[in-house]
Amino acid sequence: QLQLVESGGGLVQPGGSLRLSCAASRFTLTGYAITWFRQAPGKEREGVSCITSGGGSTKYADSVKGRFTISRDNVKNTVSLQMNSLKPEDTAIYYCAARPGTCSDNPLVYSYWGQGTQVTVSS
46-51 and 32-39 as β-strands: parallel, antiparallel, unpaired? Predict the structure, then answer.
């Protein structure tokens, strides 16, 4: 079964940084658009950032523009999310998801998901 595995979450103070990683097991990420979603308690899952299969195009939610950077390494078969200037409102479980083709903010069109990694921003 195709699997995605996230890592890099944790507890950080406001203004701090974390780097999340999404690794694929049993398939190559080449050819897949990858999106990072997040879900906070009591809230809907929202798209944070997406990168196209070739890495030539990226998208960011307005709430993270200028603070988060998505990148992919097709040799290492990973996608990373560098998160800087973190705020308490960034606290959520972060998931990576893959789909063939283009980016989408609709979680229903993603075929493959990781188990999620907790990010907590608190002093």
Answer: antiparallel
* Two structure tokens written together for 24: 């694929």
Task: Please determine, for residue 30, whether its predicted confidence score (pLDDT) is greater than 90.
Answer: no
**Tokens in use for 107?**
């979680």
How many angstroms separate the CA atoms of 60 and 27, rounded?
Answer: 25
Per-residue pLDDT reduced to its tens digit, 40-59: 999 999 999 999 988 789 99
Token pair 């609709």 is at which residue?
106
Note whether 96 and 114 are within 8 A (CB): yes
Q: What is the pLDDT of residue 2?
A: 76
114 HSE (CA, 13 A, CB side)? 26
